[in-house]
Amino acid sequence: ARLEAERKAKIEAEARAMVEAEERERREKELAGKIAAEKKAREEAELRARIEAKARETVEETTREKVKAEIEGDMTRRAELEGKAQAKAYMQAKQQAELDEEARIRAEQERKAREIAEVLRTKVEPDEEAAAAPVKRRPRRKTNWVRNIAVALGALLVIGVGVLHVVPLRGYANKLEKGIAGWLHEDAVSISNLKFSLIPSPHLKIEGFTVGKALDAKATHGRVFLDIPALLGDRIVINSLELENVSITGEAPRRILGWGKVAGKAEAAVIESVRLSGVKLDVKPEVKPFEARLAFGRDGAFKSANLAGEGKWTVAIRPVEAGYDVTFTARNWEMPLGAPIPIGDVTGKGVLTANSLTFSEFEADVLEGKVNGTLRVEWGGGVRLASDLSATRLQSQGLVGAFTKDIATTGRVEGNFSVAAEAPTLAALLDAPRVQGKFRLTDGSISNTDLVAAMQSPDAAGRAGVTKFAELTGELGAGEGRVSYRNLNLQGGVLRGGGGVDIGANSALSGRLSVEIRSNVAQD
To answer: Could you read off the pLDDT of 260-273 as tens digits, one per residue?
Structure first.
């Protein structure tokens, strides 16, 4: 019995020694882990301190910017405080969760140690001399600090983006104003309000956009599309600038060409695309609202422009060595200058320079016929126009009716004409054009006069009627309010005639006509 008691005491002593050794090893590992955790925590705290210091520097730099509206500044500070409070609450919750996890692991290890001792006590046989086999322990799960830091930074980013949706970006708006003003070579650009949005893609919403000290170029609202890293950079980099309800008034239309100058653009900002909608130009003659899309290189060089108005006309502009290639197309269009002559389809290709626009070729469907030719417009010290036209089978009724209602004609007109005009302004350019050319009118008639009846009876000379003809040819000259028809030659049925007619500025008619009837048979 004594030997049995000694053996039991020896086994219990060995079990206690084993448990104590494991407990000592566990405490040593826990101490080492605690030291490592404290080191990690200290490094994390230093990292957070650097991030917060950088954030404070950014906030300080932003607050140094000019604050136009005190209420916007109050909103910004309030939103920043709310964002920091949310971030602090998140970090506290995260730290508490980590502490709870550590406590759970320690409790689990203590429970397993007690289970091992109990097993050693109950599993010993009387004749067994060998020591009990060591029991495998589950390794302690290490804390993934990299993952935790990444989660924290991601949460801060999400909170920051959420705050950007409601906070006016006054500081960045000032930076944007300065960059766009330099890019446009303007003294001032103003943005009333600027906010961030992620839908449909990251962009800034603009309200109240104006250009120039006189605020003579403006847009009610718009959007700025850019990469999110560009918000944190020192340089303004814009993928697309979109403005709506654009009005360009006063002196602004004269500054448009200056906005495209390349010098200094790259230093001020990078704007790759500009889209304008509802553009209203304060010019004469009036141009109805149109859309415009412009593309630029990163160095500020102009690449292309596409304009479209009312679904009726389009203009494509591309830079070339001598200036800019211009392609113009229109359908169901009416010229803004001159007589209201309806035009079907028109196409033209030309070259634009700083002081001229030259179409080397154009073609138009006009009054069921065709008109083609060349056109050149120059400006600088006034506006000048020169054009050579060739007309084929135009409907004379619509052509003459566009100029006067006192006389009506029928038939088809063809001919070649030269047109020249000069005026102080574009609106007055076609008020008194000079026209020279030869024409031919076939299978037609002239109303308000019956030459056959007048020849047969003097009493019929003052009565209205119709003179029909197979062909009427002549030369047209117009200028300084006068119109002249020379070398007229009329042939039709029994009627033959010729001569010349002048129409003065007061519609006074003068000239000489020679008419003869070759038969007593009445005109059909």
So the answer is: 888 888 889 999 99
